Each structure stands twice: as C-alpha cells, then as structure tokens.
Amino acid sequence: MQRKFWAGLLFLSLVLNSFIFSGPPLSAATSFPDTSSHWAKDYIQQLSSSNYLSGYPDGTFKPDRDMSKAEFITVLTLCLGVEASDKTTVNYKDTGKHWALGRINEAVKRGILIPAEDPDGLRPDESIKRSQAAAMLVRALGKPADNGTLPFNDRATVEKSMYRGYIKTAYDLGLISGFPDGNFEPFRNMTRAQVCTVMSKFLAARGISTPVTPPSSSVTGNINTLALGERLFNLQTTPIYIKINFTDLRISSIVAAGSSVLINGNQKLELESTSDNPDLIINNNRYAIRRYSLSGNKLVAYPGCRKFNRISPGTYTYNSDYIKLYINSVNSERYLSDLEIVDEYTVKLGEKNYNLSQDKVTIQLDKDFYDIKRVIMGDSDTSPQLSKTDPVVFEGLSMSDILAIFTGTSTLNLQSSNRIDFIIDGKRYTMSQVKLDAKGNFTVNSKNYPSTNVIMIIDGTQYKINHIDINNSKFIFYCDAGSTHEWVIINNEYHNPDDVRILWDGGVYELNEVITVKRNILRIKGRQYDLDSSFKVRFDNKVYDIDRIDYDASLQATVIETGKTSTGYLASQPQKFVFFKGSRKLQEGANNVTIYVNYTWVDFNQILIVDPSRLTYKNSNYDLIGSRIKIDRIEYKIVDSSWHGLNQVLDLYLEET
C-alpha cells in the first residue's frame, strides 16, 4: 500500500461531516442555547471557538449526546493540526465509503489507530468508549502504555480492557480522570461534552491551549471545621496546614465558593478532584488526600495514606521533603516524603510494599545514614524509629575510596595508578563526577546504571566491570583481564561502532569498512580520499556533516566531530523498525534482518528509507513494499507499512514466502 511520507505540522482542516462539523466557524463570543448552564460550557466554548468542532444546524450543541468513533477521530486529528491527505486507502473493511475515511487513515498513519486491533472492522459510527478514547489520546502524544497498578476502585473491570495500560498513562498525564466514586468505567460511552473536556486537556498537554476555569455554583460561606475520617478539627485551636509545593501553608480561614474553596482568601482548593490534591498536615501528621469535599460547614478530607512530616532524631529537626531515601542500599532520587505508611512495620514506595523487619529502608541526615526499623504513629505525631548504619551512597570519589581492583586473577597496583575514569551511557566521567551505592550501581545525572554497563579506564587502559563489592566503606572492583572495547567518539560522546554508519557516494558503510589513515584522510575499498562535504555520518537515526575525523590509538577509538544536521541527505530516518506477521509482532529492531536488493542480500541497516514505500541503496531507489527480507533465516515479503511520525517508528507487515 502506497502512503505519503509526511513530516512537520500541517494546516488545520475544516472539511468535516455535514452535521457535526459543518457551518461557519463560531466566534469566541458565540454560545449555544443548550450549554449556558451546562457543567462543561467553558470547555465546549474553548473547542468550538477554536474551530475544532461546532454545533448542529439548528444552533444547538447537544452536549449530552454520545460521540461516535469517527467524530472523535476527526476532532483528535484536528487538535493535532493535520490534514486528511489520504482519502483512498481502506484500512478497515467498513470504512471504504465513510465520510471520515481521510481522518481515519490519518489516525492509522500516525499509530493512533491500529487496524490489527479491529479485524472485524472499526465500526466508526458506534459511540466512543472511555477506554478507546484514552488509548487514542495517549498514542497521539506518542506516549507508551503503563501496565502498572491501576488507581481505580473498578480496577478489575479496567483490567478486562485491552487498553488498560493506556488508561493508566492517560490518567497519569491528566488527560482523563475517574468518576467521584473512584471508578473509571472503561466501557462507558463518552458524550460530546466529555470529549470537549478531555480534548481541552489534550491541547494543554501539547502546550497550545488556554486553561479553562471549571464552572462554579453560587454556594458560598465560611468554614471553621475540618473533618478527617471521623475526627473533627477546629481551625482556631489546631495547627492545620496544606502542602503547596514545598511550602507548609497554615490554614487560618476557609471560604466556600461553589466547586472550590479559598484558603486564607487567596489559595484556591478544588473540590471533588481525584488527582493533584495537596497533602494535609495536622500537628505533625501528614496525609495524602484522595479528595476534598464540603459537608455543611465542614471541609471533608478523604485520606489516602499517612506520611512522615518532620522528624527530630536528635537536636535538629528535618523536613521529610529534603531527606534522601534509599531502598535496599540502592541510590535513587526519592525522599522520605515519598514514602507512604501502611502500618507500624510496612511502608510503600510507588506500587511496592516494604517490610521494615526484612527490607533495608534507609534515610540520610547530613552525612549520616539510618535504617527505619519501625513507624511510631500517634494522634499528633508520626516518627520513625531509627538505627544508625553504614553509608549506602558515596559521592566525590577518590583513589582512597578503592580497596582493590582485580583484573582476572591479578590485582592492579593502585600506588602506580594516576587516573580512573568511567564511560557511562556514552559519556566519560571522572571519579569525582559519579556516585556509587552499596549495591555497586553508578549514578550520573540522576540516573542509575548497573556496574556491568560501565567501562573503567585506568591510565588509558579499558576494563569491563563485572561486579563491585564494598568492605569497610571501600570499594573492590572485579574486572575482565585485558578487556577492550572499541568506540567511536562523536562530539565527545562514546558510541558503539555498530550503531554508526558512514554515508558516501550513495553507499552506507560500517566503520570497519572505513579506515582512518590519518586526520581527515579515509580509505574505502582500497582507495584513499580526503574528507569533504560528500562524507556524512549517521548515528542516533540522524545524518550529520563531518567536520573532522581521526583515530586515537590510546583509546582505540575513531574520533569524529560533526557539523550541522544534514537536511538533504535522507536525514530523517526511522528511529526503530517493528516487524509484524499479521497481527503478531515478530521483533523490534533490525538486528538479524537482511533484505534482498540489487540482486544480493544485504544487512537491513545498509539501506536508507526514502518514505514508507521506498528505499535507497547505493544511490538507487527501490520499492520497499514487495521486497524480500529474512529474519533469523526465514524469508518474508513486505506487504504493507505504517509510519508513526510522533515517535519515528516504521511498522512493516510481512507475509511468509
């Protein structure tokens, strides 16, 4: 199937269905007679005034009418700002003559719709389900599904949906929320008003919308009492705070204002919200709040869990927001305030529970480290029972922090070693720039790396780390004897040579096919060439001009400095290939894939993609669709392709020959 390769942002399309999306654009001042008192009127106004959708010919909007899949897809692609350019391809057996065919094809092209998920047809005129909407919104943003624990009371029902991971991501992104009773109801139809609400949030996620202020009712009044569970607290006699970012705001007054309350006259607190609610602090007990609501003259807080607020293990008091937290001696960017208290001996971090009598849960106070052995929970205070322990994180390392370095069965002489560096995720770091935890993990730029992914360079010699032990707060490194690793250094970053290609004269060459004779002089196929503008380098799926190329014998590395990104040399390449046989995914990535082109089998990485239907090899173009490929020695034919522009993934659909 031929599809046009697209890039960039296209113009907004207004060629829409004659009922739902017809008529002249509505101005920002236009309102619908049936939405003036509707809860979603501001969201409807925003979407309609921006011409993403309009009302019916009779001037009404019908906000509580269900929206169809086709209508939802149309609004979503309009919010992406793209045109429906392909109005002939038929991806579903029931969309060939549908008014929204172009929009449906655009959604397929962008990976928002996946035809393999609906082998019996799209059913475009059926109502859009909440689960389906969540999946489309997340895919449109190029975000992955999250199969973590679902935060809904009806999680058993949500688990039955094929889109459960997308529901979790959509919820976490704030695109679509649950109902006040804590349920999500994945198979419930969405109304036009509800779609306006989620589309407004979708536009906000893309950074192109104006925030909408939810409507308020006319109820107002002063509140003097806060209810937490069955306990009542008077604002005048009990110190009560809400957590605004990292600030504790003492509550002195609460005034009701419809769907929200004002704290101290200027801090707005939304009612009935099931996300992003500020923590509540009463005395020295801190609570995560699932929902705030009003009941008579009381502000009711529904607690989700208890947390640590401030702790005073000695003469000093520490704020939990700034106390580093470590689980089982592994470094992380977590803090004591992230820890949820389940009971006296159980705490929770993220989705996992930890038993304080079995797991090592450690905090850092200044330069000292303490294990939490128990949680002491009182009416006015929550505090940890602490036991001092050995350090679990070390930073600002020096040679004196290393006890020994083993290479095979030999030990390096540390007295004669002058410098130790580490190559981590393609970059070189000195000892003082890394952190090491007691489990042997490295941390740079707030990200952890296991020691097996790190190369140690000692006075210019490379060693692959197998594992790290710690003895009396000093490290013992175990490395391969005489290990080497070939690199290509591009703009001071280390890359695997297998991921880098030299482009020249219509050919694609691996680095072992290009010999750097000396600075800016290359040998290819036995002939020598001076570096000029015809040479390009491809890495990270982009093509760059080469400003300088050399070989560093001490590092055993080709060194390349690049200039600007090349825009005229097939610069935009897929970041990933995904191969499908029918609806079954065969593999991700082009490893062990060959393609038959120009009467020979070549590595798939030797070709360049012109568009989803064509490729180029040695300066000649060929059809991608219909090409023969082999994956693990099994031969297939490429019968279709699908380009996902937001995340630059090309899906290839195969038939076994």
From TrEMBL:
<feature type="signal peptide">
    <location>
        <begin position="1"/>
        <end position="28"/>
    </location>
</feature>
<keyword id="KW-0732">Signal</keyword>
<dbReference type="InterPro" id="IPR051465">
    <property type="entry name" value="Cell_Envelope_Struct_Comp"/>
</dbReference>
<feature type="domain" description="SLH">
    <location>
        <begin position="27"/>
        <end position="90"/>
    </location>
</feature>
<dbReference type="Pfam" id="PF00395">
    <property type="entry name" value="SLH"/>
</dbReference>
<keyword id="KW-0677">Repeat</keyword>
<dbReference type="InterPro" id="IPR001119">
    <property type="entry name" value="SLH_dom"/>
</dbReference>
<protein>
    <recommendedName>
        <fullName>SLH domain-containing protein</fullName>
    </recommendedName>
</protein>
<feature type="domain" description="SLH">
    <location>
        <begin position="91"/>
        <end position="148"/>
    </location>
</feature>
<feature type="domain" description="SLH">
    <location>
        <begin position="149"/>
        <end position="213"/>
    </location>
</feature>
